[in-house]
């Protein structure tokens, strides 16, 4: 069996995809395959890659089916013991994959590992650890900070990865599935990680593995209000599926209150389209309670192996109040 299957999705991103593949050609890890899933592109990415990188397996489809469905489909072609989900607008470093695999193999309960992700342009930290909070909003520890600070260079267990680069044990996917295809945009990786935690796996941040990420490529075609809608909708839907009843009763009232406050806050700031996006996201969850309930029953009866109290304390940190005022604008100013 191949050790690692690297899955890269591409949508009209020829230049970025080629740069990513060039960086992969220089890594020290040798036992891997690359699967490029060309997700309905109209550019010449597939032809360029086929000509330049003959070892890359190309799966080309006619229509863009989105990130979740595309990744799920690409996984069917993977033969690796581990699966690396990698954005096409990343540049990897020589030993990143060797380091991720080493961390994974330190403990049989390790299921998912994320490297230190650094913005290509600013050289600031995009993703260190991501923690759960009592409000339901995530704590992005280190976002926008100096990646050389000692506190961001300590391996830690965490609640969720950043989807730009994630190493997953094949066994995890076989047990819990991959992405929920109802999550068109945002929070799909957090929902996946939450299910992995329920199943008893550990999720790690490994700062010795470094990947540079251009960032924002997938979101550049969407209005901010669309991003607000999807983030709000998916976050709430994920918690309704995955949290135990007693955890949901603690988190849900606070989370709903903060969303309602954000609704009014956007209105006061003269951004009614964002207020409407929050309202639509809340109403979506109300109107889809039946389908979410069916998913919840499956998750709680077929996937869950641990109660929340056995893992949430390990992956939860509650930032100070000012964090939430900076969450949507200026998070880099928050002092961790």
Supply Rg: 19 Å
In DSSP terms (H or I, runs of 4 or more residues), the helix count works out at 11
Low-confidence stretches: none
Strand % is 15-25%
CATH C-level class of the largest domain: Alpha Beta
Sequence of secondary-structure elements: EHEHEHEEHEEEEEEHHEHHHHH
The name CATH uses for the topology of the largest domain is Spore Coat Polysaccharide Biosynthesis Protein SpsA, Chain A
What structural class results from the helix and strand content? alpha/beta
Q: What does the main sheet amount to?
A: 10 strands, mixed
Oligomer type: single chain
Q: Give average pLDDT, whole number.
A: 95
Sum up the overall morphology in one term.
globular
* End-to-end Cα distance: 42 Å
Number of domains: 2
CATH architecture of the largest domain: Alpha-Beta Complex
CATH superfamily label of the largest domain = Spore Coat Polysaccharide Biosynthesis Protein SpsA, Chain A
The share of residues in helices is: 25-40%
Tell how many strands the DSSP assignment holds: 12
């Amino acid at each position: 069996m191949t050790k690692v299957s690297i899955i890269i999705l591409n949508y009209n991103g020829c230049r970025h995809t080629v740069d990513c593949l060039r960086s992969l050609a220089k890594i020290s890890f040798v036992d891997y395959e690359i699967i490029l899933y060309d997700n309905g592109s109209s550019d010449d990415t597939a032809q360029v890659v086929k000509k330049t990188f003959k070892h890359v397996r190309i799966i080309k489809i006619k229509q863009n089916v989105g990130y979740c469905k595309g990744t799920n489909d690409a996984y069917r072609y993977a033969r690796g013991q581990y699966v690396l989900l990698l954005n096409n607008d990343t540049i990897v470093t020589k030993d990143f994959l060797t380091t991720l695999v080493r961390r994974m193999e330190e403990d049989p309960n390790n299921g998912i590992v994320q490297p230190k992700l650094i913005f290509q342009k600013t050289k600031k930290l995009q993703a260190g650890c991501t923690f759960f909070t009592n409000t339901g909003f995530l704590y992005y520890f280190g976002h926008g900070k100096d990646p050389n600070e000692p506190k961001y260079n300590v391996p830690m267990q965490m609640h969720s990865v950043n989807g730009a680069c994630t190493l997953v044990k094949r066994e995890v996917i076989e047990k819990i599935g991959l992405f929920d295809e109802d999550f068109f945009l945002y929070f799909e990786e957090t929902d996946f990680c939450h299910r992995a935690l329920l199943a008893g796996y550990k999720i790690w941040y490994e700062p010795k593995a470094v990947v540079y990420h251009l960032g924002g490529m997938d979101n550049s075609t969407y209005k901010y209000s669309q991003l607000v809608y999807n983030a709000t909708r998916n976050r709430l839907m994920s918690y309704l599926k995955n949290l135990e009843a007693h955890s949901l009763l603690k988190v849900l009232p606070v989370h709903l209150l903060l969303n309602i406050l954000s609704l009014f806050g956007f209105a006061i700031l003269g951004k009614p389209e964002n207020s409407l996006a929050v309202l639509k996201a809340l109403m979506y969850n109300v109107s889809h309670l039946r389908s979410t309930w069916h998913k919840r029953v499956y998750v709680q009866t077929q996937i869950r192996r641990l109660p929340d109290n056995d893992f949430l304390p390990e992956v939860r940190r509650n930032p100070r109040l000012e964090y939430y005022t900076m969450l949507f604008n200026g998070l880099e100013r928050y002092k961790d």
